Amino acid sequence: MRKGICLLLIISCNITFIGCRKAADRGRSTHVRTETSKKNNKQVCVRNKKKAESVKKSDTPLSGSEIFKRYENAVFMVFTSDGTNNYQGSGFFIGKDGLAVSNYHVFEGTTIGKENIKLANNNKTLYKLKDIVYKSKEQDFIIFHIDYNNSIYMPIADTKPKIGEKVYAIGSPRGLENTFSSGEISQWRAENLMQISALIDHGSSGGALINEYGEVVGITSGSFADGSQANLNYAWSIEVIKPYL
After folding, report:
1. Mean pLDDT, residues 73-88 taken together
2. What is the DSSP code string of 45-92?
3. What does the pLDDT read at residue 97?
4. How far apart, in whole angstroms, are the C-alpha atoms of residue 63 and residue 35?
């Protein structure tokens, strides 16, 4: 996809959306120091050997600050390139051993294995995508492993959220790491495509949409492409990845 724009034509509702992968400044990722050897280009990964923390939904609704504190280290930034343009998106962990999710369009047209993944609150080391579990252009998701043994990840919701339910988004719009916003499910626009009022922007693509019980319910993806100034955003339901886990 060129100039960070991904157009999705949803036939069932005849609405065009614009994806939120941000066209990054060339060299943006060089602002983060990496421990990559220039001689053999081998990535040095410092593995966290702590046992993965138990993650489950909360029995009672959590506040926004509680959700952010719980998951601020479960999200990350993704820097990719198609050889001409650099892009920046978001992603998040859904399991231990580096199992993660993002949008397909964040990686579309880029060189797999050449991307840089910056973990939240870690300015020293950049990580690489280790392998791809499954990817879908149609439903705009990619499931993959990062070469990192994470200790925190988000549990997946058992059911879809209803219209009007509170949701929270964590991502890196415009490269602003770990930006937190809140809103509601505004409407379902297709079987697995939801309209949300939680604020997202370019660079938010692939970020996590979380319900008030601390479960991930969606992958933040983009905004309506009609130039409206209204808060009209969308996310893919986490249901799209379940058959491939």
Report:
1. 92
2. -----SPPPP----SSPPPHHHHHHHHTTSEEEEEEE-SS-EEEEEEE
3. 95
4. 37
With beta carbons less than 8 A apart as the criterion, state whether 101 and 34 touch: no
* For the chain, counts of helices (H) and of strands (E): 2, 16
Q: In a 3-state reduction of DSSP, which class is residue 30?
A: helix
CB 161 within 8 A of CB 236: no
SS3 101: strand
Rounded to two decimals, the pTM is 0.79
Sequence letter at residue 156? I
pLDDT band at 111 (very low <50, low <70, confident <90, very high): confident
CB of 214 closer than 8 Å to CB of 58: yes
Please name which of 123, 113, 117 lies closest in space to residue 93, comparing C-alpha atoms.
117
CA–CA separation, 57 and 44 (whole Å): 34
Please report, to the nearest 10 degrees, the dihedral formed by the alpha carbons of residues 148, 153, 159, 160 taken in order: -80
